[in-house]
Amino acid sequence: MNKPTVVGYLDSLYAHPGDAVIVRVSVFDPAGRYTADLVRLICGETGPKGPGIKEERIEVGLAKEYAGGEQPTPIGSYVIVEKMPQLGAVEMSLRVWPTLPGKGQQALVSLGPLRLFIDQSGAVALAANGESISTGRPLRARAWHRVKARYDPATGAARLSSAPLPGFHGDAKTEAKGGLPVVKPKGPLLMAAAPKPGGGTTDHFYGKLEAPVLRSGKLKARWDFSRAIDTAKIEDVSAAKLHGRTVNAPKRAVTAAKWDGSTHDWRRNPAHYAAIHFHGDDLSDAGWKPSLNFKLPKNLKSGFYAVKLQASGPAFYVGFIVSPRPGAKRAKLAVLASTVTYLAYANYRRRMTPGPFELAMGALPTVDMTDIVLADHPEFGNSTYDVHRDGFGVAHATIRRPLFNMRPGGRFWNFSMDLCLIDWLDNQGIEYDVVTDHELHEQGTGLLKSYKAVMTGSHPEYHSLEMLQALEAFVSSGGRLMYMGGNGFYWRVTFPRAHPGMIELRRSEDGTRAWAEMPGQYYHSTGEYGGLWRRIGRPPNALVGIGFIAQGFDASTYYRRTAASRDPRATFLFAGIDEEIIGDFGAWGDGASGLEIDAYDAHLGSPPHALVVASSENHSNAFMLVNEEMLNNSHGVDGTLNARVKADIVFFETPGGGAVFSTGSIAYAASLAHNGYDNNIARLTRNVVERFLDPAPFKPPAS
Length: 703
What we know:
The protein is mainly β. The longest helix has 14 residues, at 415-428.
């Protein structure tokens, strides 16, 4: 099969009608030719039991052939100090915490032709014009060392040493000295990378650096990484003021050599967080040049869209959302596109790695040729479900690169699954707007104030504090919220101001997670405490009545109505539905309850007056209680043995005249189109939408 030979990205995940849109394109096809078009996405990949992919072409003057070429992506984080004075003899020192010593040459400090680095064996070395001397003794991984070097450009005399810091047991101090070629140290100064001939950087360092000092004559520059942690700035606290900046967002607010566990909030004792963690696979901005520029029609329907690029292979979709312009007339219903969650999952590489993924999923991964392009191009960065080459979790994700999941096809997850909701709404003739997580974070309650009801996507997993507060305010003021998925409102994310288009995530303490944050690093660079919203004191149960309980990926199952479904308060929900079993069908796993599921729990804040109107049953042994539900390991935690492994459909009213309806399953949306959209899941959802758009206020029960 052919692979896509053209990819692209936008600088934002949303736009408004009438906006100018810039597309950045890279072409791998040797012919360098490609076509482009704008399409509205209506239905994503729905398998043999679904209605199939649906898209609608939009005329914006794009449909023609273009010339292009491959654009380089400068991956890898480092520090650069661009304005350097003339240098004579130099002395360099810094603290080094390597994570991959012996795994390739890695630069520590570069001054033009003079480089302090870790050599192939893992030992500290100093090179001039390619000739080097080395201590010959590898550094210990994940331990702090003091590294020093001296070089005289008049004679080429050089000396260097490395020694473990107190408390980090290892080999004693090692030294080396000798003669190197005579070169002139010069700027720009780089830390954690070396300049590459012809431009760019190479030999990126994996690990932490701290307290770099450079002496040359009267100059004594001293960079303090504990300052301006929430920025991209690197401050020189000496009189020289040789300030620098980070490139590609290395991880800050990380523990340094002095950290002893006495504090966990970097703001309380910045000296314990005076380090930066660098990776050769960090990426904050691909930095491609603009390729296409077009304007969206002023009357364009709000929805899911993509710029469809195609060269010699299959098309590549550059997905984005078109939301209403500020001040424009609004529908009564808003679909809240989970753009933050899409971004957290974007470019998920580890799912294509044989081994643990299959065991966790209980199935082989679904991979298509677009995924193969991602595997072929590591420079497009990782997802927050991946780990860096040194085994540490990826805490950042940026929109400024090709995103391989914001498209139809591929697999039932997030973006593609959410198109099942769009397809159903279109089929039902229900008017709606699509708005985004990013807008919710930026605008807060103002984004939702015009809507009677808000419908989430199938998996709204990642939220900032501002997003949660806006949804809580919407519900408490009489808004109606339809939570149409599972494992929602789970992880906290933040938006580092220094890196537009980026989110930060720290998987701390607990939770079902792809990796665990290091102790002492649970606070984000923004100063906010990371981890599960449940562990921060805001479990999703308090907002939507249910919270994450189990996951399984082998098959889906059905819901059975409960006695509470006969409560007069729930009459409207089941109008026209006589069956006891609902959702025993679907395009994913043959059922409406599957993938990741949520359940009612009063201890976690589920309202006592909430009605659990249906619960799933007969989940397989691939469905197990999530980590945060267990204080210790035990038998009987899977779906065949544990009655708590179930998805609950919940309804409750709020004091402000509003209400909440929650489905508790990611797979729910994939059942809407069954039997030509004529089924009990579709009917139930239609009943909810109609009542939630009715202005008549809901009234909570008296007791």
